[in-house]
Amino acid sequence: MTHTHQIRVYYEDTDLAGIVYYANYLKFIERARSEWVRALGLDQAAMQAAGQGVFAVRRVVADYLAPARFDDLLDVTTEYQAHTRARLVLHQQVLRGPQQLFSAEVTLVCLAPDGRPRPLPTPLRAAIGENPRT
To answer: In what order do the strands lie in the sheet with 2-8?
Structure first.
């Protein structure tokens, strides 16, 4: 269950040396996660409106391996790893061709409108499989 989202590095993503500013990798993987959910056929706005919760990042463990530069075309992959009742763990990478530039393990939690944890939305559990792996 791996999804790939392409991102072009624009001038606004870089520092004065033309290298991607480190925090922008977090933006890149956020966009790719949103596209992964969309590719599963899920509408996050509709799930929120229906009271099924929203996702929040609980933990990111990241490795910066090599720099991306202005005008690079990057592939950002999102791969399902595991889930519990209210948590989802994904592995994400940023690649330039075959070269891995960035890697992260991202743990998301599902939150109710009051900010408390709630079970992952039924449509998401159906898409990734009902049985937790962790």
So the answer is: 2-8, 73-83, 87-96, 99-111, 54-64
Number of domains observed in the structure of the chain: 1
pTM for the model stands at 0.91
Q: Which residues have C-beta within 8 Å of that of residue 34, sequence separation ≥ 6?
A: 44
| Cβ neighbours around 50 below 10 Å, total | 12
- CATH number of residue 88's parent domain: 3.10.129.10
Distance CA 92, CA 62 (A): 9
Signed CA dihedral, 51, 131, 86, 61: sign only: negative
Q: Report, as residue numbers or ranges, the catalytic residues.
A: 15
Which of 15-19, 78-82, 129-133 has the lowest average pLDDT? 129-133
